[in-house]
Structure formats: structure tokens, C-alpha cells
């Protein structure tokens, strides 16, 4: 069961900028069962329309797979974010990717992580080419709110994370 609520206006909480431009879809729309079932956390799917993936907040690039299939970020708040790209991206073996950040690097909001060739990705991946954005340690999250159906990378707030209250 998804804990993501689509609302009109951002509220209080941890704001995450859109890591890529595109259309925002519910996690259930992912073609990857591990993601659509919520096994890799709660979040959204982003049907990408641009060619760059950026840091959504101040964070550390914790995991950078050479194929860019998965990217893990750790925020300054301790949230672990997982970006998962289409399954077929692995067949490219990193071809068409231009890494802008190194594993272990501290990133600023909007800083480019990598750029990719969208024509090459479209050729090898089933349409639409989409990236899931999930919170791995979602047990720390009370609620996630999404504010838009279309976002621009590094400009629009994609999600607001409402952490559970600690006593």
C-alpha cells in the first residue's frame, strides 16, 4: 500500500527537487515488480523527458553502479533514496552515460549526477523510459506528498517527505 499522497500545495517537511524532468506517476505504474510492489520502498515513478539526473537535495552519492541501473543517495536527514532506471539500461554497459559525480561525493541540490543520450536509451529501453524514486528506509517516514504531475529537473519540488515524529 502506497504512502504517497498527491496534493496541490507543498507543506512542511523535507523537500526533494525533481531529479529529472518528466511526468510523475504512481509507483504502481512501474514495469518492474520489485518497485511497483513497494519492496524497494515508497515513492513515485518519473517518466523522463530530459537527459540529466540531478541531486534532489543535499546528499551523498552512496552507490553509483557503472550501468546507472541504480543510484543510492543518503540525505543529510538520513533518508536513503534509490533511483532505479529501466531494466534494459544495463544492456548499454554504461555506453551513452556521462557521469558528473563520483561515488562518495557530497552533492548539492540540483547538481548533475549523470547525463545520458535519450535517443540511445529510447532505442534500447521499452517506452516510456522511466526512473523510480523511492525512499529505502520508509519505516522512518510518516507520509510522502507529491505536488505536481509534470516536473522540471532541479527546479520543481517532486516530493515532500514527512518523517515520523520521534518521542
Keywords:
single chain, 167 residues, mainly beta, Glucose Permease (Domain IIA), globular
Q: What proportion of the residues is helical, as a percent range? A: under 10%
| Helix-strand string | EEEHEEEEEEEEHEEEE
CATH class: Mainly Beta
Could you say what the CATH topology is called?
Glucose Permease (Domain IIA)
- Taken together, the total number of domains comes to 1
- Give the CATH architecture: Distorted Sandwich
Q: Strand order, biggest sheet?
A: 10-6-7-8-12-4-3-14
- CATH-level-4 superfamily name: Glucose Permease (Domain IIA)
Low confidence ranges: none
Strand content: 35-45%
* CA-based gyration radius: 15 Å
Structural class by SSE content: mainly beta
Q: Count of helical segments?
A: 2
Mean pLDDT: 84
| Total DSSP E strands | 15
Description of the structure:
The structure is a single chain. It is built from two helices and 15 strands. By secondary structure, the protein is mainly beta. The protein has a single domain (4-163), classed as Glucose Permease (Domain IIA) (Distorted Sandwich). The strands form three sheets. It has an eight-stranded antiparallel sheet with strand order 10-6-7-8-12-4-3-14, with no helix packed on it. It is 7% helix and 42% strand. The model has no long low-confidence stretch (mean pLDDT 84). The radius of gyration is 15 Å and the shape is globular.
Amino acid at each position: 500500500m502506497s504512502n504517497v499522497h498527491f496534493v496541490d500545495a507543498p507543506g512542511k517537511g523535507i523537500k526533494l527537487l525533481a531529479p529529472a524532468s518528466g511526468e510523475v506517476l504512481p509507483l504502481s505504474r512501474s514495469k518492474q515488480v520489485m518497485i511497483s510492489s513497494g519492496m524497494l520502498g515508497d515513492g513515485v515513478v518519473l517518466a523522463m523527458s530530459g537527459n540529466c539526473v540531478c541531486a534532489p537535495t543535499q546528499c551523498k552519492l552512496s552507490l553509483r553502479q557503472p550501468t546507472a541501473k541504480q543510484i543510492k543517495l543518503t540525505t543529510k536527514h538520513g533518508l536513503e533514496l534509490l533511483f532505479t532506471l529501466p531494466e534494459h539500461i544495463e544492456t548499454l554497459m554504461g555506453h551513452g552515460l556521462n557521469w558528473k559525480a563520483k561515488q562518495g561525493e557530497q552533492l548539492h541540490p540540483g547538481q548533475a549526477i549523470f547525463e545520458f543520450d535519450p535517443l540511445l536509451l529510447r532505442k534500447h529501453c521499452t517506452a516510456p523510459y522511466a526512473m523510480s524514486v523511492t525512499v529505502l528506509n520508509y519505516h522512518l517516514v510518516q507520509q510522502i506528498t507529491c505536488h505536481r504531475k509534470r516536473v522540471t529537473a532541479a527546479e520543481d519540488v517532486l516530493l515532500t517527505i514527512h518523517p515520523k515524529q520521534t518521542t
